[in-house]
Amino acid sequence: MGKYPEIEAKMEKRIDGYAGELKTIRAGRANASILDKVAIDYYGTMTPVAQVGSISSPEPRLLVIQPWDATVLKEIEKAINASDIGISPQNDGKVIRLNFPPLTEERRKELVKTVKKYTEEAKVQIRNIRRDALEQFKTQKKNGEITEDDQKEAEKDIQNLTDKFVKEIDTICAAKEKEILEV
Question: How far apart are CA 83 and CA 78, in angstroms?
């Protein structure tokens, strides 16, 4: 961490959240993280699918969900159908299979648009953190807690932090777009 650990920590947290959001976007290959937002009612508690069984990927375009308690198979199937992942589960009474069809060119373009939307939202949130920090330094200057030079230096440092994190967001975005567009 640099001179401003609280501000840097907030920006890091936003980057982590952004990267997590992108993991839930299907990119043609089977990836268990698309199930992160899928939860079932397990004995009165909404529980993520990953916590009620094991998820494996025996083939590049196949996920297999093996619940530890076979009585929840129907619940998992319903939750997947109700989610927005766009894949129909196949329940054979023991496991649930999710076959990932190859993405159409149109669907790939839609997914890239979604990635860009998440990217822009993440950048806006980083800039909001910058704005809040700069306001804090302006207030400190007004109250005589810091000098004008201190304020200018802080503004420059905060802008450098902002630029660093925006660049990191762009790098993550480019990698996800490449993953989606690969045939």
Answer: 9
Question: Phi, psi at residue 7, to the nearest 5°?
Answer: -70, -45
Q: Are 95 and 72 in contact (CB under 8 A)?
A: no
Calpha distance 183→163 (Å, rounded) = 32
Task: Note the residue count of the chain.
Answer: 183
Q: Please state, in angstroms and rounded to a whole number, the distance separating the CA atoms of residues 132 and 138.
A: 10
pLDDT tens column, 63-84: 898 988 888 888 888 888 888 7
pTM summary value: 0.70
CA distance 167 to 68: 42
Question: Could you give the angle at the alpha carbon of 109 between the alpha carbons of 106 and 115, nearest 5°?
Answer: 145
Predicted confidence band at 26 (pLDDT cuts at 50, 70, 90)?
A: low
* 161 phi/psi in degrees, rounded to 5: -60, -45
Residue 118's pLDDT band (cuts 50, 70, 90) = very high
**Other residues' Cβ atoms within 10 Å of the Cβ of residue 91:** 14
Q: What are the Cα distances from residue 124, in Å, to 73, 121, 157?
A: 40, 5, 18
Over residues 155-172, mean pLDDT: 94
